[in-house]
Each structure stands twice: as structure tokens, then as C-alpha cells.
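I can't quite decide. Please look over this sequence plus C-alpha cells:

:::
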Amino acid sequence: MIYKISQRNKTVNCEVELPMSKSISNRLIILYNLYKHKYIIDQIADSNDSIRLNNLIKSQEKKLDVEDSGASLRFLISYFSIQVGRTVIIDGNERIRKRPIIELVNALLDIGADIKFLKRYGYAPVQIIGKKLIGNEITIDLSKTSQYVSSLIMIAPKLENGLSISLRNNHYSKSYILMTLKLMTKFGLKYKWDSDKITIKKQKIVPYDIVVEKDWSASSFWMLICSLAIDSEILLKKLTYSELQGDSIVFRIAEHFGVKMIKKGKDILMKKIKNFNELNSLDIKDFPDIFLPISILIQEHNLKTKVYGIETQKFKESDRVLSFQIGYKNMKQKKIISTFYDHRVAMSFAALAINNDYVLIENPDVVKKSYVNFWKDLKKANFKIMKLTHQDFLSQN
């Protein structure tokens, strides 16, 4: 399936309600199940990622397919490592089989876990036989993903000796580790973080129902649209500034990309500003998910802002630096933009319809990974969407 997307009006005036945070929801699913708190599905995000994780953690099947979810893969490896007597095989699609898990598995092996790589060393699929783990000191390299650490932090209070995690390259994606720790602190966690070491002792965690915040990473796509439009006002309903989500940095940096963000009670209003002071540089190592919207804004506005901290982009759903380069090349040639099955590629390049006659997005359903209603919301902003098959596209060209 291909979407042909256009926006001839070049102005935007709409209200949208962003999805609940996938990152918060996924952590809550693990925590609620680890520490035996009953919850209902309506309390978590409706993203494919969160729904799939919820279904897998409750499944009694031996073989568990995470499909394209890296977070599910990493979180479930730790989760099932301590499910005494339970044997599972965790696998996913071809992209998942290329996403690294060696650091996480080695750390769990160091504290006694029973995990085997079934095909390629260091990658899914893996077999896990759950057992009681004592815990101890381990070391993790953060240069690929912080999810290793979040995965381990969530099981740490259940380990007899707790866990002391030494961090190498600890300047990457700290905001996601802090999200995990802050959520668990709400449930009673006490921890110590000194420079490059996190220490968590065995302790009682008592989760309770909390309201999942709206997703600030999703706001970056609307910042992109607001900035590219000739004139725009976009009200993001029920979005409040977050201490949990690193991507709330969007609120602070938007004005350097042509968007004023204004608090309106429990909502945020985005307004286009034509004259703005661009940043000399921006380090996104703690909020890597806004890489594509920021990169497109720099390209479209011909800004001189230098973006740093992009080393982890190659380990996302796609190699996002490469996806950005290929996507731009295809867009200029009015060719189909491959999403590489990456939800953020689809949403970022869709916004460019406002600066072009149209854009062609392949596999548009990938947005359901994090933002199920994205295409419906896009229509509220005067975007027109035409569904095409590959045969339709070939016949028109």
C-alpha cells in the first residue's frame, strides 16, 4: 500500500489529541506484571508496540514473536529470565534479528541467567529458561541503546543481592533511564546513581494505577508541520509538560525552529513564527527520537544548526540517517519514499507534502507502532490522502 499525500492549502489550523506515551506504557506493562498489579488495557497506549507487549507477557505460549518491537525484545528478555521454571523462545522479524542484544544477554549471563542464542550469536532468536537470579555487579555499554539498562533496572528489586550497574559510554539516552527510575520511584523504589554507577538493592515495589502522559515524541511531527506551513495554529489537547519524557525538550527548542509553544491550561498551543533565532548546535543524544523532524526542519529552512549525538540512530527501527538521505533523494525525484518499516520515517516525510505537490509513502500502516490515529489527525490539518497500490502508481507514471 502507498499513500499519496498532498496539502495544497499550505496553512494549518486544527486540534489534535496525541497518543499516550508508548515508552511509559511499555515500562508500566513490565512493572505491573513483575510486581503483580492488576490493570486494564485502557490504561496503556493503544500503539501496536504496547498492545503486543501486553499480549506477549500474558501469553502461555513457548514461542513469543515481538515482530518489530525492539523494546519488547529487550524488556522481555530480562522479564522471562527471572520467571522460575518458564521456558520461552523470543524472536521477531528480520529487522529485529539485526538489532543488538549481546550487551543485555551477557549482563544477565553474568548474574546466572540461562539464555541461549538459537541462530546468530548476539541476536534474536533466544531461548530463555527462567530461574532465580541472585544479582551482583554488571557492566553495560550504552552506545547502542539505553533499553538494556531500563530492562535490568526493572527486575533489580527482585534480585536477592540487588544490582549494581556500571555504565560505559553513559552519555547516551540518559533520559530513558531516568524515565524508568522516576516511574519506579513513584512505586517506592530507592536507588543510588553516582556518576557511572546505578545501585538498586532488593526491595518491595508496590505499583498503582497512574495516568499515562501524552507522547511528547509525537509532538515533534506537529512541530514540523507547524513550522513548514505558511501560517499555522495547532492545539495539542491534554499535552502537559513532562518530567518523565526527555522528548519534552521539544517545548524548549521549538522556537528555534519557527514554532512558539504556549501552555493553555491542560493543552499546548503551537503557533508559526516567521522570524526566529536558529541554534548553532543541538545534541540529541538524550532525545534521539526527534532526529528526523529536526533534520527535515534544518534541511527545509536551510539552517546552519549542527546536530550531534546521532550515533545510536543506526540501531533504531531503521538506520535513520540513511533513511533520511534516501527519503530526501526519492522525494525530490517524486519517487516512492520507503519507510523501511519505520514509523518515524513515515510520519516525518508525510509532513513534507506541505512543501511539495505531493509525497508518496510506502507501507503507511507502520505508524500504528506508536501513533495509531496519525493519518486521521493529519486529515484535520488539511492534508489529503489517496490510497494507491503499486500497480496504480506504475499506471500513473
